Amino acid sequence: MTFDLWWLAYPLLGIVVGFLAGLFGIGGGSITVPILTTLFLAQGLPHGQVVHLALGSSMASIVLTSVSSLRAHHARGAVNWDIVRRITPGILAGTFFGTFIASRLDTVPLAVFFSCFLGFVAIQLLWGVKPKPTRELPSRVGMITVGLFIGFISALVAIGGGSLSVPFMIWCNVEARRAIGTSSAIGFPIALSGTVGYLVNGWAATGMPPHTLGYIHLPSLVLVGGVSVLVAPLGAACAHRMPVTRLRKFYAGMLILLAFGMLHTVFG
User: Fold this and answer.
1) CB–CB of 3/218 below 8 Å?
2) What share of the chain in percent tops pLDDT 90?
3) Does residue 107 register a pLDDT over 80?
4) 52 contacts 194 by C-beta, under 8 angstroms
5) CA triplet 34, 115, 143: central angle to 5 degrees?
6) Is-above-0.90 flag for pTM?
7) To pair with 187 at 20 to 30 A between CA atoms, which of 151, 212, 228, 231?
8) What is the DSSP letter of 190?
9) Whole-angstrom Cα distance, residue 66 to residue 21?
């Protein structure tokens, strides 16, 4: 592949990530990270830095994607801002802390747990298992605790948290479309805190390739994030036109793909 084609690969990735972000309320990091890692390796970027660059660049692109997605869902009244306010303090703390240990923690057991969790949720969605009608969202302290967990996991694997926050809200009897819309808003503080964390952690790193800022690869950020911003509203529109039953099945299929993608990234 010649250098010129990289300018096409990044926007194509942005189209996929942006559409899925709007459709499912995810940041797209589970797709972006393994693909960016592959692209960085093929371009000859330093082998020891490519994963961290993929993680940081993915987080930074999610900032742009989440803003576009949440605006589209908010315009359709699908964002529960009370949930966003209650969970954000935990999200910010968990995500920022997670970036500092991402390079020091063995992520294999965590990735296996994460993938098994996604598979379990997907099976429940496919089988139509419904939560108890009396189950509600936890108290403010409980929401902060959930936010800490979602933010921490999101920082380690550079995702926007939708693959965790959407199943959590559905499990607490939040309607599927509203859960997806709210998740798109939750993805913004995750991405913002994660971007700052990867920027700080990579600031003094040695042997970095050109056109980087900390662990953020600027060309991929501009081209992936910029295109995803334009496409995310299209995905959000599809989410609100699709029957809820079909949307849940598509989301379950997406969770299964994310689980396999995570395992492939870790063990590959």
Assistant:
1) no
2) 17
3) no
4) no
5) 105
6) no
7) 212
8) H
9) 7
Candidates 63, 31, 66; CA nearest to 195 is 63
Can you give the pLDDT at residue 2? Answer: 46
Nearest-CA neighbor of 154 among 33, 264, 36, 49? 33
Tokens at residue 13, please? 């990735």
Other beta carbons less than 10 A from residue 260's beta carbon = 14
Q: Name residues whose C-beta falls within 8 Å of residue 8's C-beta, 6 or more positions apart in sequence.
A: none
Q: Cα(39)–Cα(224) distance, rounded to whole angstroms?
A: 12
Dist CA 92 CA 84 (whole Å):
12
| pLDDT attached to residue 104 | 66
What residues are paired with 212 via a beta bridge? 217
- Tokens standing for residue 39: 């692209």
Closest CA to 238 of 47, 64, 18: 18
User: Vertex 29, ends 47 and 168: CA angle to 5°?
Assistant: 140
| Amino acid at site 29 | G
| Helix or strand run (H / E) with residue 216 | strand 216-217
- Report in angstroms the alpha-carbon separations of 131 from 125, 127, 213: 10, 12, 44
**Is the pLDDT reported for residue 30 higher than 50?**
yes
Mean pLDDT of the chain: 81
What does the alpha-carbon distance between residue 215 and residue 203 come to, in Å, rounded to a whole number? Answer: 7
> Burial of 251 by CB count in 10 Å (0-12 exposed, 13-18 middle, 19+ buried)?
buried
| DSSP secondary structure letters along 33-81 | HHHHHHHHHHTT--TTTHHHHHHHHHHHHHHHHHHHHHHHHHHTT---H
